[in-house]
Every structure is written in structure tokens, then in C-alpha cells.
Design brief:
The chain has 450 residues and is an alpha+beta fold. Helix content is 52%, strand content 19%. Its EC number is 2.7.13.3.
Length: 450
């Protein structure tokens, strides 16, 4: 339902000012917010000014109406001019330079909630501008609208200068509010960006923690598998000498009961051999369990001296020859690590040599970038290619190299200790002779003061 409030003829600039003022007064009395008052009145002024500039005369009618469940303040500006020939082009164009024809139409369209325009050649143009009203507008009766129209009719003549000044003050006030809102929006945008940055950092931290958790879970799974294999192998290897000892003691008991002292005495070396085997196995297990501890103390070690100490601690046949390089470095490291490594590697070279009368073992060292490279070389029987990798695994000595006095822990201890320092260990062997090569961090070299 449409209710007419008032109508104004538009013939000059003063009428444009009056239309602007009436738009402000009506929107204010109908409870519209000040920013919306200014928008509606500005849109009315733009269209009325187009009438004066391009046609010369027209009219504006203010109405109240309800459409689609909303109440509107409506302004209908019409004229009897020649029409707008390029209306579609004006409505669809995105950008206008200030002062260009069509700028007023585009600006007004942006300021109101509902905008429509009709124009026919030689029949004029009709523009409809609507702005939504708050709930208060629906309660205004026709009698109240009539009273307002009468007040406007009896109102004193307006001063164009005073009205334009008032309009400018209102526009400045709206611009100040818009500026404050822009500042608030910029502050909110900055805060959003800051929070987004924190969120991204948190997501990265969470991803890193999840990645570390997955790595630790994988490491724990590997440790559990190693523990299972360790427990299984230990129980198996310990049971064998225990069963032998049990059998020997049973046989020894029978010999003593039968007073066969000669046979009984023959069993004592075998019994001692089994106990020594158990002792070596238990010692090897203890060394393996202690390897890789970070809290072991470091000390200055002359590697040339340490190698000789290792050799003197081993059971070396008199025919064995050792060639120890004179340029071995001085290190600041864990003595137990290096002693274990070289005692196992040199001990294996002695233990597995098939020609001790011609045996030669050499120990040398070189440095490249950040790593020292130690080489322990022998002229023994060599190691088949197919077992060169598996000999570094726990309890795997290689079927071709198996000996009754080998625990199968030595090379796994060497690998664990070397990897603990970030290095690598491997064997090279083709035919006779083997070279065990390991890398050690050069950062532990003690530099002599000049």
C-alpha cells in the first residue's frame, strides 16, 4: 500500500535544495539512522539535479509504502524530457570520471536499497528511489503524514546558502563516522591477520609435534622389536651353555658315584669351557646394553696409545704383526666407546684369522671435511659379499664365519657406538683380506696450541 506524503516541482537549484531538505526531514521523522538519512537525501539530490541540468523541469513525490514485508520511504522523480538514449550503457558501465554524464544515476543507485529507472524517447524519465524504514515507520498513520505535509507547507522560505552549508556539515559528520569505521575496520583487519599468523604458527608447531611424535612412535616400535629379538636370542644362547653345564654335571655326578675319577677329571675342562662361554656372552650383553649412553664422560685420548692398550688387552698370538700409523689424532671423546670399537674390530681380526703365522693387521686414519676415517685392515680369509651387511646385526656372525667362542654381539656394539656419534661403519672385502672402515666426527680432534 502506497501513501503519498508530499510533492515538489523541480525547476531550479533552490528546488533541488528543498527536495534534499524534505528527504532529510522525512527520513529523520520516520526513524531512519542518520547515515541512511544522508544517503537517501543525497540520492534524491543527485537525481533532481539531473532533471534541472538536462531537462529543465520535473517533479518529485515522496511516499510511504509496504512491499515484500518491508516498509520504505520512496521518492519518485519524473520529467517530460526527451529521455535517456544510452540508459543501458550508463547502468552497466563500471567506472565514471567525475562530472561525466550518468555519474548521478550510478551514485544514486549505490545509495538506496531499491533503484529503478524508466526512460522513453520524447516521453521523459521516471526514477524510483527507496530506502528501508525501521519498525517505527510502520506505525505512522495517514493523519500524521498529513500534519507533516501541512508543516512543510507553512515552513518559512529556506536559504539556499544555509541549507547547502547544513548539507555539507551533515556530509562531513557522515565522513567522520566513515573514517572512524575505516580505522576500526583496519584495526580489526590487523588483529585478524595477527591471529591468523599465530594460528599458522600454532598449526606448524602442532604439525612438528605430530611429526616428532610419529618419529618417536616409530623409534619405539623399532626398539620394541629389537628388545623382543634381544630377549629371544639371549634366552636361547644362555640356555645352550646352561644345558651343557647341566649335562656335564649329571655325567660328572655319575662318574663320581661309580668312582670313575679319570673320566670325571676329563669333564672339568669341558665344564670350564662352558662357563667361560657364558661369561663371554654375559659380558657382551652388558657391553651392548651400556653402549650409546650420552652421559659418559669425555677425556683427551691419544689414539696411538689407546690402540696399543687395546692390543695389549687381547690374547694375541706371538706371530701376529701390527702396523699402527704414526699420524693417529688426539681426540676429546668417550674412552669406553673407542676402546670397545677397536677391541672388537682388532679382536675379530685376530680371532678369525686362518693363517696366524703370516697375520698382519694395520690401523690407519685420514680426515676429510667434517669426518675422520679409521681403517682396520687384515690379511685374513676375507668376508663373503653376501654376509657383509648382516654381520653388523645382533647375534649374526655369518654362517661362514661362525665360531664357538663368538657371541655375535661385537660388531653390533661397534655399529651402535659409531652411529651414536653420527658416523657409519662398513666392511670392504674381495677375496682375501678385510678392511673395516668407520667414520668419526672430526669436531672431537684436539688442536695443539702453537
Amino acid at each position: 500500500m502506497q501513501r503519498v506524503i508530499l510533492k515538489i516541482n523541480i525547476n531550479n537549484e533552490l528546488d533541488v535544495v528543498l527536495a534534499y531538505k524534505r528527504a532529510m526531514q522525512l527520513s529523520e521523522r520516520l526513524g531512519m539512522q542518520q547515515a541512511n538519512q544522508t544517503k537517501f537525501a543525497t540520492a534524491v539530490s543527485e537525481i533532481c539535479r539531473n532533471v534541472v541540468e538536462h531537462v529543465g523541469s520535473g517533479s518529485i513525490q515522496f511516499n510511504m509504502l509496504e512491499d515484500g514485508g518491508f516498509n520504505y520511504l520512496e521518492a519518485i522523480v519524473s520529467d517530460r524530457g526527451r529521455g535517456i538514449g544510452n540508459l543501458e550503457w550508463i547502468l552497466n558501465r563500471q567506472n565514471f570520471l567525475p562530472g561525466n554524464r550518468g555519474t548521478g544515476i550510478q551514485n544514486s543507485k549505490k545509495l538506496v536499497d531499491v533503484f529503478s529507472i524508466e526512460s522513453e524517447f520524447e516521453k521523459g524519465t521516471r526514477v524510483v528511489l527507496r530506502k528501508k524504514l525501521p519498525a517505527l515507520g510502520a506505525a505512522v498513520s495517514k493523519g500524521v503524514l498529513d500534519v507533516w505535509a501541512e508543516e512543510f507547507k507553512n515552513e518559512a522560505d529556506i536559504s539556499p546558502y544555509a541549507e547547502i552549508k547544513k548539507q555539507n556539515m551533515q556530509l562531513l559528520e557522515v565522513m567522520d563516522k566513515l573514517h572512524l569505521r575505516n580505522l576500526e575496520a583496519e584495526q580489526q583487519l590487523y588483529e585478524i591477520r595477527r591471529l591468523n599468523g599465530q594460528l599458522q604458527q600454532s598449526n606448524q608447531d602442532i604439525s612438528q609435534l605430530l611429526e616428532e611424535r610419529d618419529k618417536k612412535n616409530q623409534l619405539l616400535q623399532e626398539i620394541n622389536l629389537n628388545l623382543d629379538a634381544f630377549a629371544h636370542t639371549v634366552s636361547h644362547d644362555l640356555r645352550a651353555p646352561l644345558q651343557n653345564i647341566n649335562g656335564l654335571t649329571t655325567a660328572l655326578e655319575a662318574c663320581l658315584e661309580a668312582n670313575h675319577t679319570t673320566e670325571a677329571q676329563a669333564m672339568f675342562p669341558m665344564l670350564r669351557q662352558q662357563t667361560q662361554k657364558m661369561d663371554r656372552l654375559i659380558t657382551g650383553i652388558l657391553a651392548y646394553s651400556l653402549s650409546g649412553h650420552h652421559n659418559l664422560p669425555k677425556k683427551v685420548l691419544e689414539m696411538h696409545t689407546l690402540i696399543h692398550q687395546v692390543i695389549s688387552s687381547l690374547d694375541v698370538p706371538p706371530s701376529f704383526k701390527f702396523e699402527i700409523s704414526e699420524n693417529l689424532p688426539v681426540l676429546y671423546s668417550q674412552e669406553v666407546y673407542l676402546f670397545q670399537i677397536f677391541s672388537n674390530l682388532i679382536g675379530n681380526a685376530i680371532k678369525f684369522h686362518d693363517q696366524p703365522e703370516n697375520a698382519v693387521v694395520t690401523v690407519s686414519c685420514s680426515i676429510l671435511d667434517e669426518w675422520l676415517t679409521f681403517i682396520i685392515k687384515d690379511n685374513g680369509p676375507g668376508i663373503p659379499v653376501q654376509v657383509q651387511k648382516q654381520i653388523f646385526h645382533m647375534y649374526d656372525t655369518g654362517s661362514a664365519l661362525h665360531r664357538s667362542d663368538s657371541t655375535g654381539l661385537g660388531l653390533s656394539i661397534v655399529r651402535k657406538l659409531v652411529e651414536e656419534k653420527g658416523g657409519k661403519v662398513w666392511v670392504e672385502s674381495t677375496g682375501r683380506g678385510s678392511s673395516f672402515i668407520l667414520t668419526w666426527p672430526a669436531s672431537e680432534i684436539v688442536v695443539e696450541e702453537q
